[in-house]
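Appendix B. Raw example, untouched.
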Amino acid sequence: MSRLIAVDWGSSSFRAYLVESTGKLLDTIKSDQGIFNLTRDDIETCFKSQCASWLDKFPQAGVLMSGMVGSRNGLKETQYLPTPCSAKTISLALESVELFDRSVKIVPGLCFIEDEKTSDVMRGEEVQILGAVNKLSNDCELICLPGTHSKWAVVEDGKIRRFSTFASGEMYSTLLSLDLFKGIIFSKSFDKESFQKGLDASFQTAGFLNSIFSGRVKLLSGELDDIHLSSYLSGVIIGYEILSATKIYSSNSKVVIVGSHYLQELYTLAFSHFNIESFCLEPDTTYVSGIYSLAKQNNYF
């Protein structure tokens, strides 16, 4: 197979990548047609319409998918592989499904179980983590993947050892809809000073819920403008995520950030605020690097 069609299909987004046998990214397709917005039949139709030109031009191209497409709401519910897990282990567990007379393989998710009190799961992020591993030189890395459900993962000896999830993005969206802030016109523009005030508020000993309410207090006192509330709340949430994650994971190396460019900017600013070194990896090429390594291990090329 001279081409690979790789699909990162999440709950709220669709991303497809046309990859050459050398691993070079040739083309990209993106839309907001996530799995949670589609029925089983819609999934097939969506894939075919989104990637029609590629499918017509490269009829022999292999198709490899990851993310929520492997959930119970997707094409097929795949298993969760226990950590520690390497690219080879994951590649041996790819699961097949027929899609309009074409065999498609889906990447399984991962699960981390330490004891009865500590467990976690992921679908899709494991591919980006593997891609980050390919790009990094250190033996032990702490990787942060910000998003709706932010993931923090520890990688050692090329294996994903453990990880934790923080529902930061989802919490942010929820807070903006609360009666607590009803009637406030939220601005889509970012305000650095308000964001940093939110980061400082995450240090409060009274806890997360008190820090959230402090946003309303600052509005009433005039310390915070209505249009800057969203930046403040973002700072509170990201601050708590970082402080919680760094309590779980201790690392002498820089934190590696893999996410959208906007989130990379926010998290870089937050890490700097807390005197934590970090650097970013471009998300699309990192994903392609990870999915390409799985494809090669599975003899796609």
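End of appendix B.
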